Amino acid sequence: GATLDTNAYVDILKSRFSVIAQYVVKCLNTYNLCVIDGFLGEVTGKEILGEVNQLHHLGIMQKGQLVHSHASTSASDNIRGDVITWVDGRENICENIQYLVSCMDAVVKNCSSLLEGYTINERTKAMVACYPGNSTGYVRHVDNPNSDGRCITCIYYLNQNWDVRRDGGMLRIYPEDTETVANIEPKFDRLLFFWSDRRNPHEVLPALRERYAITVWYYEAEERARALKKFKGELSNHPKKQAVPLFNGSQDNS
Ligand SMILES: Cn1c(O)c(C(=O)NCC(=O)O)c(=O)c2ccccc21
Ligand SMILES: [Mn+2]
Question: Which ligand has an atom closest to residue 197 CA?
Fold first, then answer.
């Protein structure tokens, strides 16, 4: 068939991201969350998984957080949970992670123009997380309980053939205004959006197999500005709290 020239290809991508954004905004406004399956396709998803595996096995991930060990306090008994590392995508082994983040940015940029009263032009770096599969999870929490500026949580899952009955690791969201619970399987090439504030308390159930995800938090400009004034310098130093501008559309994201 006819080979697409790059511009035509970029135009198709752009229109796809704007169609996805319309769906994301409708879901966020109705359910406080949105799931997009098959976001990048098998080939790109596998490339990203390869880079994340490399980060993990090159030991670039920080030590897993300590989860409460049982009665004994001896170091050997402490169980380590999720291991994380922060990437801004410009590291040399992260070009596919960078591509993923630029696609997330493209969708969120479109969402921002559709969300009345929200201006989203900054985000955190990407947090790459791995649960080791030793039945540790993540306690119930709200990502942004005190208006630190983060308004949308965006998570991309990388787990092929994940079966929650065997592997656990379900993300359980307790939407504030409904008693129905949302059970999200951390499926390969799945993209999840949800409001970062108190509307979405959530937990990761114990994972029995290595469970990878890449998370980006998007800042709302006004809330972020207020938070920076209120919390003074405290917010700006921690990598999670540093804000970076979204990739701009014209930048070569090939
Ligand atoms: C490793 N990990 C997390 O997995 C989630 C989280 O909510 N994950 C949801 C999920 O993976 O489905 C977090 O919110 C989180 C916050 C700070 C540091 C690490 C963190
Ligand atoms: Mn969370």
Answer: 2
Q: Which two tokens mark 113?
A: 């123009």
Q: Residue 146: CB partners within 8 Å, gap ≥ 6?
A: none
Contacts of 53 (CB under 8 A, 6+ apart): none
3-state SS, residue 39: coil
CA distance 239 to 160: 29
Q: What is the ipTM of this complex?
A: 0.99
CA pair distance 154, 160, nearest whole angstrom: 19
Distance in Å, CA 138 to ligand 1 centroid = 7
- Alpha-carbon torsion, ordered 84, 149, 246, 48, to 10 deg: 20
Ligand lying closest to the C-alpha of residue 185:
1
Cα separation, 12 vs 210, in Å, equals 35
Condensed to tens digits (0 to 9), the pLDDT of residues 178-215 reads 778 999 999 999 999 999 999 999 999 999 999 999 99
What does the DSSP 8-state code read for residue 177?
Answer: T
pTM: 0.91
What distance in Å separates the CA atoms of residue 235 and residue 102, rounded to the nearest whole number? 24
Probe ligand 1: pick from 215, 238, 240, 241, max atoms within 8 Å of CB? 215
Q: Which secondary-structure segment (H or E) carries 212?
A: strand 211-219
